[in-house]
Design goal:
heterodimer, A: mainly alpha, ABC transporter involved in vitamin B12 uptake, BtuC, globular, disordered C terminus, B: six-stranded mixed beta sheet, six-stranded mixed beta sheet, 17 helices, 22 strands
């Protein structure tokens, strides 16, 4: 838990600094406070109003929005965190998410299957395609020595161009019905939709629980199994891992396959949960956010989950700040600031550590 | 700390690792600054703030790790930082002349136009000395100069330094080799924990007395030599094995035997160790472990066949510094009991085994959760040795096991290796330190340029002959 302290402090300081900035730009402390309150109510629900009116939507809707966003951030954050563990920097979560989203949209619209099977198949397709996309870069790394930062970031653009500039406007374009022209791919069948939990009040769907379950699964894998132990050793000291008989290439491939699958699942969840088709452009950079989420969570799967819950909530609340003259992207500013503070790790270590550890002098 | 140096004197500065030898000399050379006290040259107090100040006062230092630019020539390296010019242009001919003159004066051969990375380590050291002399050094500090030299090169170095001191220069030799200091110095200062504990002349002391002064208690430097091990069957056999850096190697290591590999650094010893542990693929030949023939060997297969490895590069090859001590103990056996249960880590079993291992191997601190990187070098090595022996290996591949350790740790590690061989393990020991090989090995094989150049039983080992073979001489 001690390890989480720098992250928690970073987020708190980022919130505080942003508040001061908001107060200055609005020129009114009271209005800034109101904006923050609105953000809070948008994030965890307007409880006073609920007790007053008894209307469940005052709390269920905000919480549902927060959960929906948190699910996507969790999945992409996990994706980046898993790659970190074997020492790779997967900047390609966005591209892997895009191809995953397309796979889910395709299966969802083109096949006719009973519901549980349809959802499962669409999600598996999303995971599989995301995985393949990540393995392209990993293969280049292992066998051709191409640095993964370069290859994954370039594959992001390949994915976006392939999907949005060709497939979605070409072969997979929805056929116009009647006089209405449609953008994006065809709508997925109802059987492929992720079941919603309280359908009348919120868009919160099964994706949230899948994300949480996967965060726990990744934690068990990395912290409690020997395969995870070997993967961590590969990330921290590849030469020592090799000498210890760890199959280094296999562990790297495994982790990157999972990393890509998680990002692909984020895409699948986005389509099957809320978008219901692949739109003309997927304007959600959740893949890039995953980098920030993983870093603030210090590369730990549960850290990524916690961070994603916080920023999912803040983002859901951010839209409510607009009423007070604050742009809805404000939570992203807080996120960026927190990331900067976490990245200034040395500063924290000096502040939090009791004393520098005794040096390795013989 | 008080110390004085007279012109024409050769001072031997000895002490264990961390005794303060290097710190003292770094103060003199301007790399560190004293908290209190003063330095005086020719009776005048001087402030030395940087190596430039030190050079101006005639202090020159030959570092343990050379500070030469590998792909410049000897002459270019010698003048680097203070280049002679003619009409604003670099005058390399003048540089070549300087090197030639100095070499003639000291009677050694160096081609000023040769690139430094093509020279032997001994010659590179000479380049450093020439460089210091050219800057007008009257006091020359040699930091662990013999660590990488053959006996011949060491003698050559001592001859040169003797000549320098007869010419009025002061030479300081920092070392922890007792033999060297006795052969070299006119006066010996012993440091312990940052204090000068004794000042003696070679005539009035003995290796045992110096060792005792260094450690502060009576320790014998030698582990008593075990009776020559009863020869078992060969466990490791190489037949005409070649690999990048290795050329047609055939040898065997028998059960209960320590086979020493001697050679000047970089003649294929490291490659040999890597081939045997599966870390380096070999292109030709057959490797036999027990009764199994291997044409290709992975590190996991080597470990499964009973090969344990104590590598030279502890922090890169043996230990994950950012993991805990207990995680490092599991490394290499992470998939078997007591470290694993099915696909999961066996946390309780791991803790129990680690605690036992730390106790029996005297690793400090006795904390399974300490970060391995925070342990001292000696304790890290004890951890690695303990871990590898705990696997009950049939073949132990050991590279430079005592490098950088203090006497107590050196003795502990050597005793472990002896005991392991006595218990029937085959041991392949690579060391650059002839003394270590002669103290431990039953047989010594010399390597030169990737091939074998002679095998000697310990009884028949002659240091000078070994040295000749290390430099490539034929039988």
């Amino acid at each position: 838990m001690r390890r989480a302290l720098p992250s928690v402090l970073s987020v708190l300081i980022a919130l505080l600094v942003s508040f001061i900035a908001a107060a200055f730009t609005l020129g009114d402390l009271g209005q800034a406070a109101s904006a923050y309150l609105a953000m809070l109510q948008g994030a965890v629900g307007d409880w006073p109003r609920y007790f007053e009116t008894g209307n469940p939507s005052t709390v269920l809707r905000p919480i549902g929005e927060a959960g929906t966003k948190a699910a996507l951030l969790t999945l992409t954050g996990l994706s980046v965190a898993v790659a970190f563990r074997v020492g790779l920097f997967n900047i390609g979560a966005q591209g892997q998410m895009v191809v995953g989203a397309l796979a889910a949209a395709f299966i969802g619209a083109q096949l006719q299957l009973p519901s549980p099977l349809h959802v499962t198949l669409a999600l598996l397709a999303a995971a599989l395609l995301g995985s393949c996309w990540a393995l392209l870069a990993t293969g280049l790394k292992l066998w051709r020595g191409v640095h993964e930062v370069i290859s994954t970031i370039m594959l992001n653009w390949v994915a976006v161009s392939l999907v949005e500039n060709w497939l979605v406007v070409g072969p997979l374009k929805a056929t116009a019905s009647g006089t209405n022209s449609l953008s994006g791919t065809a709508q997925i069948h109802a059987t492929a939709e992720l079941p919603r939990l309280v359908a009348d009040y919120s868009r919160l769907n099964l994706g949230f629980f899948i994300a949480v379950a996967l965060a726990v699964a990744v934690t068990v894998w990395m912290q409690r199994t020997r395969a995870g132990f070997e993967s961590r050793a590969v990330g921290l000291a590849p030469k020592a891992a090799e000498a210890a008989g760890v199959p280094v290439a296999r562990r790297v491939l495994q982790a990157m396959a999972v990393s890509g699958a998680l990002a692909g699942l984020a895409g699948g969840t986005l389509i099957l949960g809320t978008e219901l088709k692949y739109p003309a452009t997927l304007a959600s950079p959740y893949g890039f956010d995953g980098i920030a989420i993983a870093l603030i969570g210090q590369g730990h799967p549960l850290g990524a989950l916690g961070t994603a819950l916080v920023f999912g909530a803040l983002r859901a609340g951010g839209t409510h700040m607009q009423l007070f003259g604050v742009h809805k992207s404000f939570p992203e500013l807080i996120q960026g600031l927190a990331l900067l503070l976490v990245a200034a790790k040395l500063f924290w270590e000096r502040l939090v550590a009791k004393k520098p550890a005794a040096g390795g002098v013989t | 700390m008080s110390l004085d140096l007279a012109p024409g004197e050769r001072l031997g500065l000895i002490g264990e690792n961390g005794a303060g030898k290097s710190s003292l000399m770094n103060v003199l050379y301007g790399l560190y600054h004293q908290d209190s006290g003063e330095l005086a040259f020719d009776g005048a107090v001087a402030r030395i703030r940087s190596p430039q100040d030190a050079i101006a006062r005639g202090v020159g230092m030959v570092h343990q790790h050379f500070t030469l630019v590998p792909n410049l020539t000897v002459a270019e390296n010698v003048v680097l930082g203070d280049e002679p010019t003619r009409g604003g242009l670099l005058d390399l001919e003048a540089a070549v002349r300087v090197v030639d003159e100095t070499c003639k004066r000291l009677e050694f051969t160096l081609d000023p136009r040769e690139r430094v990375d093509r020279l032997t380590v001994g010659s590179q050291q000479k380049v450093e000395i020439v460089k210091a002399l050219r800057r007008g050094a009257k006091t020359i500090i040699l930091d662990e100069p013999t660590a990488v030299l053959t006996p011949q090169e060491t003698e050559d170095l001592f001859r040169i330094t003797r000549q320098l001191s007869e010419g009025g220069a002061t030479v300081v030799l920092i070392t922890h080799k007792l033999k060297d200091v006795l052969a070299f110095a006119t006066r010996i200062a012993v440091l312990r924990r940052g204090k000068k504990v004794a000042e003696v002349t070679p005539a009035e002391t003995s290796p045992d007395q110096l060792a005792a002064l260094m450690v502060g208690e009576n320790v014998t430097n030698d582990v008593p030599a075990a009776a020559l091990a009863a020869t078992g069957d060969a466990f490791l056999t190489l037949e005409h094995v070649s690999a990048p850096g290795l050329n047609d190697i055939s040898l065997d290591v028998r059960k209960g035997e320590i086979l020493g590999i001697a050679g000047v650094d970089g003649n294929g010893q490291r490659e040999l160790a890597e081939v045997v542990t599966g870390l380096r693929p070999f292109t030709h030949g057959v490797l036999k472990l027990g009764a199994t023939h291997w044409k290709k060997l992975t590190p996991a297969q080597a470990r499964a066949s009973g090969v344990a490895h104590i590598p030279e590069d502890r922090l890169r090859r043996a230990i994950v510094g950012d993991m805990t001590v207990e995680e490092n103990v599991a490394l290499g056996r992470q998939h078997v009991a007591p470290f694993a249960r099915g696909p999961f880590i066996d946390f309780a079993g791991r803790r129990e085994r680690t605690t036992k291992l730390l106790e029996t191997n005297d690793v400090r601190p006795l904390d399974p959760l300490a970060r391995a990187g925070s342990l001292s070098g000696g304790n890290q090595q004890k951890l690695v040795v303990g871990r590898e022996l705990d696997a009950k290996p049939k073949l132990l591949v050991v590279v430079q096991p005592t490098r950088g350790l203090d006497i107590a740790a050196v003795n502990a590690v050597r005793a472990k290796l002896r005991a392991e061989a006595a218990a029937g393990c085959a041991v392949l020991l690579v060391s650059l330190d002839l003394e270590e090989l002669l103290a431990l090995a039953d047989r010594v094989v010399v390597m030169f340029e990737g091939r074998l150049n002679g095998t000697f039983a310990r009884a028949a080992c002659d240091e000078l002959e070994l040295g000749r073979r290390m430099l490539g001489a034929e039988a």
